[in-house]
Amino acid sequence: MGLSFSGNVVQGVHRLSASILHLIPHLSGGGAERQLSYLAPELARLGWDVHVAFLEEGPNPSLLCSKGIHLYKFNHWGNYDPLIIMQIVHLIKRIRPDIIQTWVLQMDIAGGIASYLMKTPQVLREPFIGRFSSANWKNITREWLARMNEAVIVSNSKGGDGYWASRWPQLNRFIIPNGLNLSEIQQSDLILPKEIGLPLKARFILYAGRLEPQKNLGNLYRAFSIVCKKYDVYGVICGDGPYMGHLKSAISDSGLAERILLQGFVKNIWSYMKLADVFVSVSYAEGRPNTVLEAMACGCPLIVSDIPAHHEFLDENSATFVNPEDPTEIAEAVGAVLMSPAQSRRRAFHAREKVSLWSIQKMAHEYEQVYKKVLRNRK
């Protein structure tokens, strides 16, 4: 069926009889991929038989490769190639998982169809992104399959939970916040400005994340431009995505290429966060954004959009909230952070205290409780 297999099950731990198959389009690269790379090894350590199937490895070598997880790569000709479903069904027949967990829209659909055909319980992970969850055929199909499978919905935010409560309230739903590798973040290397192309002792404002419409990169860039012209400060934008070309053109046309740096995808983003003077995230909509959580753990002062998703885990004592539609207000907030370092450090301290509770171990424990309920209901 075009499957390739790699990886070995973790040795030396007591195994449960239950196994779980995670289905995800890419093995690494974005927020969902990062969360799976945290969750799967911890589940294996707890004794679960963990399998992960995917289509592409993504831009970053997977954190799963060294963790002793069963890995399977599917061949495919396109995002919705019917052969993907056939390969999932073939894999289910081979490994007989007790639970399928689907990650990201593409696998919610392909995995949902396979779950229906094979009568295998489905857990669907919801990364709700607000107004960008439009009523197109993909989302409608995804919701219909979840209803047909009586899927268990695990959202990473109250927004995601509310999304499903308004559509299919009869489905079992849980909220499990994203986990963070707190120990690795604390131990991550410190860097100097010159290591990222900045002058020694340079101050800079940072954005990190996907370069896509919901991230409000137009207003973010306009705010960065205002700040870089008014203060002796640089802007650093890390990430990749469909908006990259537009940003390159805008920066080039404005003559700010030496003051606003596009770094692309970076592996050591925590080192950037520890060095930055302020982290800015002014998305129009979010679920539970990994980069904001990581900036909190790194002790970086935060400026975030005034949206419900951010208020769910931040308050006025831990971040500065701004109108995402107003680049001037965003720029003024950045200026206030730069000019009031003591107050900004206090907010960053409170933010780091909040995030200290969201470990990978806690997240895995909560998922484990969900899986056990699914297995009990199956009997």
Description:
It is built from 14 helices and 14 strands. The chain has helices spanning 31-45, 82-95, 104-118, 137-149, 158-165, 182-187, 217-230, 244-254, 269-275, 290-297, 308-311, 327-339, 341-355, 360-378; strands at 4-6, 19-26, 49-56, 70-73, 99-102, 122-126, 152-155, 173-175, 204-208, 234-238, 260-264, 278-281, 302-305, 320-322. The strands form 2 sheets. It has an 8-stranded mixed β-sheet with strand order 1-4-3-2-5-6-7-8, sandwiched between helices. Strands 11-10-9-12-13-14 form a 6-stranded parallel β-sheet, with helices on both faces. By secondary structure, the chain is α/β, with parallel strands linked by helices. Helix 11 (308-311) links the parallel strand 13 (302-305) and strand 14. Helix 3 packs parallel to helix 4, helix 7 (217-230) runs parallel beside helix 8 and helix 7 (217-230) crosses helix 12. It is elongated. It folds into 2 domains: 4-179 and 359-378, Rossmann fold (3-Layer(aba) Sandwich); 182-355, Glycogen Phosphorylase B (Rossmann fold), CATH 3.40.50.
Salient structural properties:
alpha/beta; Rossmann fold; eight-stranded mixed β-sheet; elongated
Report a brief summary of the structure:
The protein has helices at residues 31-45, 82-95, 104-118, 137-149, 158-165, 182-187, 217-230, 244-254, 269-275, 290-297, 308-311, 327-339, 341-355, 360-378, and strands at 4-6, 19-26, 49-56, 70-73, 99-102, 122-126, 152-155, 173-175, 204-208, 234-238, 260-264, 278-281, 302-305, 320-322. By secondary structure, it is α/β, with parallel strands linked by helices.
